[in-house]
Amino acid sequence: MTSISVSVNGECKVPPGFRFQPTEEELLLYYLRKRVSCEKIDLDIICDIDLNKFEPWDIQGTSSPITTVGSL
């Protein structure tokens, strides 16, 4: 298992070669299925925001760094 941490300034500290490019199938079968059924998601890279509270150009700046992303 590999642990992924995010530093206070928001930079990921991940192993060399790590990529986060899930396929549509991985998003649907892993993330969204667990999300809909309120199950715990091991890898918490995708954050939730209320899109109605932000202008489209402000959304990218709303992500806040988290201390531990999880483990793979």
Automatic annotation (TrEMBL):
One of its GO terms (biological process) is regulation of DNA-templated transcription. PROSITE patterns: NAC (PS51005). SUPFAM superfamilies: NAC domain (SSF101941). Residues 14-72 form the NAC domain. The keyword Cell inner membrane does not apply. GO terms for molecular function: DNA binding. The keyword Coiled coil does not apply. It comes from the Eukaryota. Keywords: DNA-binding, Nucleus, Transcription, Transcription regulation. This is NAC domain-containing protein.
